[in-house]
Amino acid sequence: MAFRSRPGPLGTSCLTCKRRHKKCDLRQPVCKRCEVGRFKCEGYGHNKRQEARNPQPDGSRPPGAFEHDGPSHSTFSESGLNRITMGTSLISREQPEDTTNSSPPESFTPLDFNDGRGNSAPLGHDNISAFVNKQGSRVEDYLRLLITRSTSDASTNPMSIIRKIINLQAQSPYSPIDPMKTFFSYPWFVDYILERSDTYMDQWYFRPVNFPRKRSREDVVSRLRTSPISRWVSLVAMSIFEASFVGDISQHSLHNTWIGYIEGCLMRELSRDLTPYNIQERRKNWIHVAVLKTMIDHTSNTYQVLRNMTPIFLQSVFSEPKFWSKDCDPTYIPLSNILGSESPEISYFALIDCTYAMATGLPQQVEYDTTAYALPIIPPTQPNAAASHQWSLSSPSVFQLVLADINACRDKSPAARDWKDIEKQLLTWQSQPAEYEFTKPWMKLAWYAVQESWRLALLVYLYMAVCGASSDDLRIQPYVDQILQVVGTIKKRDSSDVKLSLFVQYLMVGICARSETHRKIARDKLSAPNESRLWLLRVSDFVPVLDHLWYGAAAAGRSVYWTDYMRSREAMLPIES
Fold first, then answer.
1. Could you write out the three-class secondary structure of 286-319?
2. Where is the Zn(2)-C6 fungal-type domain (predicted)?
């Protein structure tokens, strides 16, 4: 709606009070009179005397787009920032603040933004400029103190930080700066994300000597410093990781809300005329968001997430020359090059695709080339951030290639390898002791045990899903016993909170388990939040599938076939394909 310019002094009231012919108390962004009367405050944007923030929108609308960002320029669009800021206010409506974790009185003292003035008494125009400048300085000081203490205090998580900022917005009626925008724009926010990311890396079971901290990676630091949406995705990712790590599923609805807002932003951004660099960054962000979604969403929805994201995944892979060796077949995706890259979003998506196909019996979304192409040789003394999935998810690259091969063979893909070739590869495989150097000697033995458990589990999967063997086959039962023996040799790390991700192993044990002892082990490992928190899928959703199998086709220790497991999966975990 356009307003005509009329002679005389410009107004100061909010648009709602002006139309109602009421005296406005001038509180921003929402005046108190509108708030008390439950009227929608339409803000001060029609006044041109001073810059005022737009009224906060409904909150049900998705966030607006981000401005172009890249190596040299990056800002939020005004509407996009306001909508995202309002989106986070859902926290205060859906979840009460955990005062024991986020607002200790000795850490943060609430700011008095009234400065001795009641909200009902409007400030004189001569004093507003000095007052709002003082308010802005105090907001910045508070945010700086908040992030500094949050970085050093492990108990302060991203969720509590956002709650504090929302409370700050409610307390700062005359602040000339937006606390959320300031929080995202300051260098110390990047420091916070890097610090939390490195702390998360400390929870990995394996630590190669030359795997760099994120703080030392120029590409990661540059991406965070130049891209607002990357910072937002990183904050949500940290919140999801930390909630998952402590087994807290109560925040998943909020995380899904944030993810929905970010997806809306990315969809609009990719419809704009962006530079190739920014297009690729948006694609990676969107794939990252999809990976986060599979961690918290019900497994029955993961197929749709993967299918919707596959075009973005393919566009991203085909836009990266580093994935394509000269011998690569362009009609298939070179899985070994993806897994060996420094692009965790791309490799994690491929891992989820292959693992989900194995566990559900559905086809993979992508046809992979599983040739093990030669990777650049990097000296042990040189930092190497490639293949992070091996250390964060305990998933050796060599066996991810075999998993994709078995899936293709099971589904009778035209390019599938012969099952006997796959069997021979698994039976003759030998570990390479000098392949990796770890920070502690015992990690080398643990890594070999993880590899061996993968080898045994994939042999079981091959015999049952491809060869049609029953669970009491003379080849299978010894492997089930050996899987549990090998996994049992892996010692706990110094911190008892560190867990291994062995979903495929325990699923194979559960399918073939004939004794209650083995079934209890599989159920406990897959259902316990403190066991499954580092996995990319909600593996606890497969426990009802195993229960259905055990008390149905496998009752009284009877042997089963892969088709029996598929019937239980379809009954307890139906998926619309």
1. HHHHHHHHHHHCCHHHHHHHHHHHHHHHHHHHHC
2. 13-41
